[in-house]
UniProtKB/TrEMBL annotation:
The lineage of its organism: Bacteria, Bacillati, Cyanobacteriota, Cyanophyceae, Nostocales. Thiol-specific peroxidase that catalyzes the reduction of hydrogen peroxide and organic hydroperoxides to water and alcohols, respectively. Plays a role in cell protection against oxidative stress by detoxifying peroxides and as sensor of hydrogen peroxide-mediated signaling events. Belongs to the peroxiredoxin family. BCP/PrxQ subfamily. It comes from Nostoc punctiforme (strain ATCC 29133 / PCC 73102). PROSITE patterns: THIOREDOXIN_2. This is thioredoxin-dependent peroxiredoxin.
Length: 152
């Protein structure tokens, strides 16, 4: 069953591009999390989406949220991708797509890993889910709208 609004976001621990490990529970009680699953580093759609998150990163921080990207790419691939596009947020490696499957952010069109964004509040509850393979900037716009409503 895919994770939906109102569900408690399942915890996970994954390796980050900087060699550390990140757990979702690390943010609980301190920050909201914009968790976005994307298919592959350095592809046109994923680059557009990641750069849109980069361009609004300071706005996300100003509303008390952290942005975290997840794909099956290696930490080395994430390092190169983040450096090439100056991505200021964490990218996590989900080898075998275990966390992707846990969240239900599976194959789009039956072929590619899905592009799904979850807005998770400080208490760990999913407040919004945006699932679109082609509306790259929509992931950022909808996440920001949701966070701004939560902050009110």
């Amino acid at each position: 069953m895919p994770i939906k609004v109102g569900d408690t976001a399942p915890n996970f621990t994954l390796p980050a591009q900087n060699g550390s490990t990140v757990s979702l529970q690390d943010f609980r009680g301190t920050k909201a999390v914009v968790l976005y699953f994307y298919p592959k580093d350095d592809t046109p759609g994923c680059t557009a989406e990641s750069c849109a998150f980069r361009d609004q990163y300071e706005v996300f921080k100003s509303v008390g949220a952290e942005v975290v990207g997840v794909s099956a790419d290696s930490s080395e691939s994430h390092q190169k991708f983040a450096a090439k596009y100056n991505l200021p947020f964490t990218l996590l490696t989900d080898k075998g797509d275990q966390v992707r499957k846990l969240y239900g952010a599976t194959a789009a069109f039956g072929l590619f890993p899905g592009r799904v964004t979850y807005v998770i509040d400080q208490q760990g509850v999913v407040q919004y889910v945006f699932d679109s393979m082609l509306n790259f900037k929509g992931h950022v716009e909808e996440a920001l709208k949701t966070l701004q409503q939560i902050a009110k």
